[in-house]
Specification:
globular
Length: 110
């Protein structure tokens, strides 16, 4: 597959996560509250996802970083799917993390 597609997938995952956790923090807070998770958990998850997003972007120059960061981000998206399902979220709210999970699997399997 074209390396440009992998690079684009890295950027899409990383930028999507950064936008959500930096600029849409109020929405994230409401979601975590609906999941029954506390502020400390939300902060830890946010820091971890932001770090992984940064590593995915760094992976554009240092490819060795891509496998671990995409695999771990994929696990975070899998956890998001679990909590959305447990909370009974509609599919439209589950779809973003499902798409990002798919992109992470693509990146990790490269």
């Amino acid at each position: 597959m074209n390396p440009l597609i992998y690079s684009l997938a890295q950027v899409i995952v990383a930028v999507s996560v950064l936008v959500v956790w930096v600029f849409r923090h109020a929405n994230v807070a409401r979601e975590f509250q609906s999941f029954g998770l506390g502020d400390l958990t939300r902060s830890a998850v946010g820091a971890f996802k932001i770090a992984l997003a940064t590593l995915l972007l760094a992976g554009l120059w240092f490819p060795v970083l891509v496998f671990a960061s995409s695999a771990l981000m994929g696990l975070m998206m899998l956890a998001a799917q679990f909590f959305h399902a447990r909370a009974g979220s509609p599919w439209v709210r589950r779809l973003p993390s499902l798409v990002l999970l798919g992109l992470c699997v693509l990146l990790a399997c490269r």
